[in-house]
Amino acid sequence: MSAVAPRRIRIVCISDTHNDDPTPHIPAGDVLVHAGDMTDDGTQEELERALAWIRKLPHKLKVIIPGPLPFFSTNLKYFKINLSLMHLLGNHDLGLDPSHKAYNPTMHALFTSAAVQADGVVFLDKSRSTFLHNDILSIYANSYQPDFLKSSYAFTYAPFPSPEATAAWASAPDKRSSSSSTASSGQSEAPLELWLSHGAPKGRLDWIHIEGLMGCEAQRRKVQAARPQVCVFGHFHCSYGVEKVVWRDSGDEVDSEGDSDGFKECVVLTEENRDAPYDFTSLERGKETVFINAAWMTMEKGKVEKRNKPIVIDLAY
Asked: Is residue 181 a part of any domain in this protein?
């Protein structure tokens, strides 16, 4: 009797669309992940336009995950695969951050309205965890990132080391919580683990030509402890790409000082003009993590027509 082939899930990754409507360039897939900054300023007009193209996408389920509070965790333990969309808000989407002076409650109400939900859009936040069917995906999402420039952007905190940075990632899962959630759900196999953030973990596709800007050290430590299968983010437009980290066999936990990167190999897989999916169906759980900077916009933004392609990956479940 021949072995049953593993089922595949196709995930399309994009970020930093900054008022563009990328609909013609979005490939088909089971899940589309948008890692934030769908607008430039988060005004009502910009948010309405962004929501309009999201609602028109052919995907039957569109899940929007903002960061309305200093931190949040959304664990989609039951996620029915049926052409889905995941959207995460970034630090330019000011109107959807209740802690920001530009917060627009009308926009928050629109994104959570019955009419928008009828189009398959699901708006999630810390106070509204949603559990969907089949236990396919476990998703941790966090829009917050360090503010090295003391800006007026949304979803930011003081850079590490700071109490704010620690608090921002206090809700992040680790390997123990992942395994326990699987056991409590009664499932024989753990769900696929996705980590969604707007900013990068420090050292992972976070290069930028502005001195002093980088990914978050607090997030890096949490990712190292959790070892999710896939991390998707953006923000650093000039570091678009794909990397695969192979973690060390020993020293599973972050060391006491947190100064060990914890991996023995990092393989750069970026192909800027690639149309075919990256095949990660043989990814080793707990031993390998794929990092994806899916920034759609280049550093030149609206000054040039060039855009980065959405990154498509296949996972097995």
From this structure: no
